């Protein structure tokens, strides 16, 4: 079918688990305008794509597995997704639906266009504070969906989505700070802890709900640990990956914060 294709994104694997990245300007055939994840899908139901947007979309199995049935009016094809680094690109105009999902399925949808959330729009004036916030959550008969429109539901464009998965229970991730990057961190499956340290005070947040996110402002030393089995940590970021934006040395971090 014209345009529909599987796209494999990087899987960066080490002893601390797996990380996959989807970002503007690399492999992704469009720029991200909005992002949604569908979860708590009810057995025997189907999820109809195009409910949220009519634009180019990318569909990913962040957890579990399911069939994506695509149809363009003359042809129908079925793709099975069950790996977080393997996505299905569905161009504008091609219909799609999900069927046969496993019980723990989480569907990530990235879209080139704005997504209809139906929820009250809440421009976020206080984004410069690290805290856990509720997102636009919509409940359907088939399951739940959380929607984040870049530059609309949050005060930055989503230029990158990356996610951590298969993290061993005794491993920790992070241990670095960013100079400019702003992020939303979401437990789309399972749970984990995020400790934020501004150089003077530390606070630990436990994330366990797909409908809420921890906002992480620039200049925060972060550590993630206590991953439950099957946990998936989704991060929506204000920029593509650059090694220059990282501070990986704690003393350098304190100097950056002018605390040393
Ligand atoms: P890192 O950010 O250190 O992981 P974590 O904070 O989860 O412990 O990234 C691990 C490796 O992956 C590192 O070599 C950089 C690379 N990476 C990318 O290439 N792109 C990305 O978007 C991210 C987040 C990491």
- Biggest sheet, spatial arrangement of strands: 1-9-6-11-4-14-13
* Overall 3D form: globular
Structural class: mainly beta
Order of helices and strands: EEEEEEEEEEEEEEEEEEEEEEEH
For the report, how would you describe the main beta sheet? 7 strands, antiparallel
Q: Output the radius of gyration.
A: 18 Å
Summed over residues and divided by their number, the pLDDT gives a mean of: 94
Distance between the termini: 59 Å
Strand segment count: 23
Oligomer: single chain
Helix content: under 10%
| Helix count, DSSP H or I runs of 4 or more residues | 1
Stretches where pLDDT is under 50 for at least 5 consecutive residues are none
Residue fraction in strands = over 45%
Bound molecules: thymidine-5'-diphosphate
Concise overview:
With 260 residues, this protein is mainly beta. The protein contains one helix and 23 strands.
Q: Could you characterize what this model shows?
A:
It is a single chain. 3% of the residues lie in helices and 46% in strands. It is mainly β and 260 residues long. A seven-stranded antiparallel beta sheet has the order 1-9-6-11-4-14-13, with no helix packed on it. β13 and β14 form a beta hairpin. The model has no long low-confidence stretch (mean pLDDT 94).
Supply database-style keywords.
binds thymidine-5'-diphosphate, seven-stranded antiparallel β-sheet, 23 strands, 260 residues, mainly beta
Question: Could you outline the blueprint of secondary structure elements for this entry?
Answer:
Layout: E1 5-8, E2 11-14, E3 17-23, E4 34-39, E5 47-48, E6 57-63, E7 66-71, E8 76-81, E9 86-90, E10 95-99, E11 106-111, E12 132-134, E13 136-139, E14 144-149, E15 160-165, E16 173-178, E17 183-189, E18 192-197, E19 202-207, E20 212-216, E21 221-225, E22 232-237, E23 246-247, H1 250-256
Antiparallel strand pairs: 1-9, 2-3, 3-15, 4-11, 4-14, 5-10, 6-9, 6-11, 7-8, 7-10, 12-20, 13-14, 15-22, 16-21, 16-23, 17-20, 17-22, 18-19, 18-21
Bound molecules: thymidine-5'-diphosphate.
Thymidine-5'-diphosphate is lined by residues 12, 19, 21, 160, 162, 164, 173-174, 176, 241.
